[in-house]
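Re: How this chain folds, sequence and tokenised backbone to follow

Filed under: protein folding, tokenised backbone structure, sequence and structure records.

Contents: The amino acid chain and a row of whole-number tokens, matched residue for residue.

Body of memo: The sequence and its backbone structure tokens, given next.
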Amino acid sequence: MSEWIISIVGVIMLGVLLEIVLPDGKTAKYVKGAFSLLVVLAIAAPLPRLFKTDFRSPSDASVEIDSAYVAETYDGYGARLGVALEEYLEGEGIEAVVTVRVSEGKIERVKLLVSPEQAFAAEDAVLKRLNIDKSRIEVVTSDVRKSA
């Protein structure tokens, strides 16, 4: 309690000194306004201790991860990435159906459905584009036009 009173007295003394030193004018108004906020903060400082709570970080608050939302977000990212890869491969002259599985923010598996003639080129293009390990790419050869 005595610390609080000393801090208030110190702030008031600083205010009096500021009043003496500051010239009159528009700047003085703004400095006095900012200083009055400092006085209010000094007066209100012990309130969290009186209520035995810390307003900045509640101790009883808990955060729970919505795993269904996270999984849905990863699925959506994987689907958009698959479409983008299909468009990229199409630009490279490769017709493919791409499925991407994302887990914990990382690409787990890329499945390519391509014709046997384009399998190597499609795998190579995806490796270069995504910069992932070759073990994460699964190439399934089939006639893409009939399967899609």
